[in-house]
Structure formats: C-alpha cells, structure tokens
C-alpha cells in the first residue's frame, strides 16, 4: 500500500500546514525524541507512524510506503545507516530520507549511506523541521505562494522522558555485554542531550568511552544507573 493515497491528493499543503497529505515514518527507539517529531508533524499537518527498531521498520515498509522516512542512527538492533542504504536502493524510492542523531560525525555517515538530509538532536524548531523536509519534495507536493517561517519551539511531554528513563533503568538492571552497554550509552546520551541534562549526558559519555576502549567499568555503569534512578525518583515525587 502506498501512503500517497488518492485521498491524499485532495489534501493539498498550505502555508500553515505545509506537510498536509504526507505520511512520516519515524524510526526511533526513544519515546521522548519520537514525541518531539509527533508534535512537529501535528503542527505541520503531516501524519506520523513509528517504528522503534530496524526489524519493525522493515515490517512496516513491506505494507506501506510513506512519503518521508526519518531514521535514527543508533537503534537497538543495528545502525540506522543500514536502513538508509536499503531504502536509498529501493525502486520506487521513498521521496525523502533523513538521518537523525545527536552524535558528532553522524551527519556524514547518514549522507554517505544515501540520506537526503539530516536532523540533529534535539529537534525542537518547527521551521527547521519543515524546511528539512520541504527542500527535498517536488514542487507539486509543496505549498503554493509565500510561506512565513514559524519560529515556534515544541516541548515533548515529560511522561515520554520518564518512559525512556524507565527503559534505561530496566536495561541497567540486567546482565550486559559490551554491545548492550554501547547501545545504552548512546541511548541515554541522546536522551540527556534532548532534555538538556548535562550530568546524565556526561555519565553516558564516560560509559561510551569505556566501551570504545574495549573495557567495562563497573563504576561507570553504577554512576549512570544511580543518575537514572535519581531522575525517575524526582519525576515520581513530582
């Protein structure tokens, strides 16, 4: 099934809702980051579908062809660059493929895999989000006439942040190998950047450095676990 449905052709984009008629598939494991994209799509007129891993995204793409795909590079079952490369080689190709990450150097990786563009986390600017998609769409899928750039910033629901913290705490409470800890460091680091939580981000980076050096520091894991539990306790108290 193609998400460029006949009905969608009747829903022409407007200056205030420039993504009207488009379906955006977000491949993202963080509920907090996905909530930000959901709000940006809602304000822009686009519909959103979500996949939280590569396997889920591939199952989705067997049934639907979205208009736009936004793919996080750090996913629990592999790198988002794998899916970007697969989708870039598809015929017919999805109209717009964007990579997404908060890591340094991620944009170059996404573009070399075949992404049309890149979104750097945290993503909160409505104007930047819309322009990142619109600049890659054909003229007949864009709003006609002048469009005023909307400088609004969106703020995701804190409940989604708590959900991500709980997910991290669950992983930290299990036995972990190096691959799991590397993923966890990336996941919590991205979450912390999106939430402007510097101490949590620093703890995640410390764990990532340990994994890069092919070692596992119990103190780094314990520090990160303690901070995650403290954030959860603060949220519960609120």
Automatic annotation (TrEMBL):
The UniProt entry, under PANTHER family, shows: RESPONSE REGULATORY DOMAIN-CONTAINING PROTEIN, STRESS RESPONSE REGULATOR PROTEIN 1
Report the record's Gene Ontology biological process terms: phosphorelay signal transduction system
Pfam families documented for this protein: Response_reg
Q: What is this protein called?
A: Response regulator
Q: Which domain of life is it from?
A: Bacteria
Ranges of residues in domain Response regulatory = 23-136
For this UniProt entry, which residues form the secretion signal?
A: none
| Keywords for this protein | Phosphoprotein
């Amino acid at each position: 099934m193609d998400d460029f449905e006949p009905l969608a052709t009747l829903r022409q984009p407007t200056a205030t809702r420039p993504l009207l008629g488009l379906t955006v598939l977000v491949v993202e494991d963080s509920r907090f980051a996905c909530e930000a994209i959901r709000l940006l799509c809602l304000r822009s007129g686009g519909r959103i579908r979500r996949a939280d891993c590569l396997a889920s995204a591939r199952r989705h793409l067997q049934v639907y062809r979205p208009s736009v795909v936004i793919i996080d590079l750090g996913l629990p079952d592999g790198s988002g660059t794998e899916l970007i490369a697969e989708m870039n080689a598809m015929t017919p190709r999805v109209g717009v493929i964007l990579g997404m990450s908060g890591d340094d150097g991620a944009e170059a990786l996404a573009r070399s895999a075949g992404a049309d563009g890149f979104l750097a986390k945290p993503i909160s600017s409505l104007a930047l989000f819309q322009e990142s998609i619109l600049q890659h769409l054909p003229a007949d899928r864009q709003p006609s006439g002048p469009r005023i750039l909307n400088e609004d910033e969106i703020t995701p629901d804190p409940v989604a942040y708590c959900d991500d913290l709980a997910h991290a705490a669950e992983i930290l409470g299990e036995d972990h190998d190096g691959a799991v800890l590397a993923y966890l460091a990336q996941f919590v680091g991205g979450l912390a950047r999106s939430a402007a939580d510097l101490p949590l981000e620093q703890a995640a980076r410390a764990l990532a450095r340990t994994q890069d050096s092919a070692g596992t520091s119990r103190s780094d894991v314990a520090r990160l676990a303690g901070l995650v539990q403290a954030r959860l306790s603060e949220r519960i108290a609120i």
